[in-house]
Amino acid sequence: MAALSQDTLVNSSPLSAGCTERVARLRSIIISTAPSLCVERALLITDAYAQHIAEPVVLKRAHSLAHILDNMSIYIAEDEWIVGNHSSAPRAAPLFPEYCVDFLAAEIDQFAQRPADQFQVSAPVKQAILEKIVPAWQGRTLLDRAMAIMPEDVATAQKIGAISGRGNLTSGDGHIILDIEMVLNLGLRGVIKEARGALAELPPYEAESIRKRPFLQAVIVSHEAAVRFAQRFAVEAEKQAADPAKSPERRSELIQIAEICRHVPEYPAHNFREAVQSAYFIHLISQIESNGHSFSLGRLDQYLFPFYQADIASGALTRLQAQELLELLWLKLFSVIKVRPWDHTRFGIGYPTYQNVTIGGQTIDGQDAVNELSYLVLETIRDIRLTQPNVSARVFNGTSNRFLLECARTIKLGFGMPALQNDEIIIPALLEKGVQPDDAANYAMVGCMEVGIPGKWGYRVTGMTFLNILKTLELTLHAGRDPQTGITLLPATKDLARMDSFDDLYNLFLDQYRFYARMSFQLDSVADLAIEEMTPDAFTSGLIDNCIARGLNAKAGGAKYDIISGPQSGIVNTANALMALKKVVFEDQRQSTIEILQALDANFEIPGGEVIRQRLLGAPKFGNDYDEVDSLAVRISRDYLREAEHFHNLRYGKGPIGGIYAGSTGNISANVPLGTRVGATPDGRRSFEPIAEGVSPVHGTDVSGPTCILRSVSKLPTLRSICQLLNLRLSPNSLADDAGLERLVLLIRGFIALKIWHVQFNTVSTDTLVKAQQHPEEYLDLVVRVAGYSALFVTLDRATQDDIINRTMLELG
Prior knowledge:
By secondary structure, the protein is of the alpha/beta class. The protein has a domain at 174-179 and 289-453 and 726-750 and 770-813. Helices cover 49% and strands 9% of the residues. The strands form eight sheets. The protein has a six-stranded mixed beta sheet. Strands 3-11-13 form a three-stranded mixed beta sheet.
């Protein structure tokens, strides 16, 4: 490897962050680049679909991916070591018209003026979208197919805001970890060889061969295209190396880049440099193939460590060189960006792509898996301080204090990483669902805080249809009628005024709750069927065990495991609201249900309304270790899980282990838009305010400190989950000295002991956040934790910013 810059920078300014001058320069450029739209992919796939119109859809899409990879613009920017671009320019979002085009036509003039996630649209791009892309795809998209097969009542349930699945219907699945380790050790040539062998062994006259043959052919076509894509960068590097204007040092680098791209990912990686480049190519191509997000890199510190260790031992690599390569990889991840319809964007504000990297945890035999690369990842994200990758640290009883302290030092900096995931509950939860022990021990985080087994799990672990539980309570209180639209899908079986007990009320709520849970499962199936029919992905499926052996893509049952969930949103608000009704109406008899309903319908703005609100607010609240209200949250969670036991996904019985539903509270930033669909509620919340995110307490109601929050959360039926979200906001003063960091380590030890799934921290002061709202130009790279992911604060809409500011600031002491 050519010598890299040896002067480590002092991070006096966040805009000059990076371990070397090279990283700092590239970071400064990328963070100052305004996001835009790129039309290249859309034009290329439009042409390819026309050329392969009669092909089976999986083969058509493979040829289309090949056409894109063979013809899209590529570039190698000055100073780059890791190469590969997602679109024609950094931070330019490619378009995926096969999924949805209606929003492109409807929102084309608003992209640059959005409240958040803005995109610049040049005149030629606008013209191509309106004149070529939209007309070519109208009526032929994934969304069109989904709407054609969607039952009317399911569509209506979306309209009133009880469920939401817009993201499922307008983009690819994503939420997956490919078998990158296998590629590093075998190369794509090995995958192609396996697919050719499986194709040759297909019985010629069996009916199923008709289905399997095009899939296996598609794997070969798409992976051969991936090899050619890498080699295009080799040619470009050689071209640039021949430029006499380049410095001798840069020409040497470019020659090495060419050599690497000719070798990987086609063949096994020889060294750390090749391994990093190969991993990035695989990760990148999967995101060119599909518009899904949450493509994650798995346990990077585990599969890259043998290459790192060997290169360090031989002297072929220094620690600083490895650090620089990782930071350059993070810049490439940050440059990957996608555009979504605004109504989908609101569920994940801040340009998130949820590209998760998992570090730490344990080995298959239960030993501490933390290695020197685990520490180096923490050092790199402290250096570069960007929103990608979304780093998660696995912890368990055997995790060393040294590693926990390094996590604490990183958390202290305020950009929300690493999030912590608890082996003590996650591994048992996976075993409970049928995952084999060796696989369970090797889990990694997907997207935000859901889990999957690298290279063995199907699409979209969670992130299916959002169920708005607080909305179902609002419907209950209005006899099944939606106050905002006047629509009634399930009339109540008993009048609100005639309820004799809290159990009567809960049973009415349970009727609505189960009804809309079933609607959410139905919407999942609509999305799954449409995606299976319209957008099967051969490149990604070829890197998932057992797709090639079964001759099935991951959406058709090819994966070893396939367990999914849609986020159950509003559990905490609903528990608080039911507790308030139980206390105020049925126990203390201070108000009638009708009086409370009148106050809710008026947003508490009637005579005596504020008195009623204060009585409701005075009831016990989740997050303070009060068993009575915590038990209601447990009851609500269990009732969903009982209902889910009766339903399966479309892959059930087709080969994968699972095919079932699990619990999830990973609602990302959807707590803000979901709240806009719900009027005032009996927990004291005013109309259309955000609901609580995940299992985090409602802002301002967690008055007993972080330990009590953990105790409340620990009572939930987490073993049945596949994802859980807990946000804690800590005072920066609590972490100002070593004693504060030691207290945070103790809190993390408590988190582990209580077997809570996930926790993440915000440590930015309210004063800083308010100043960033007022003077965004001075805080361009202020990163905060939103909900399962981090984002640049100034890119968030005002409602999401306010939601973060209003989180309770907790002290450690």
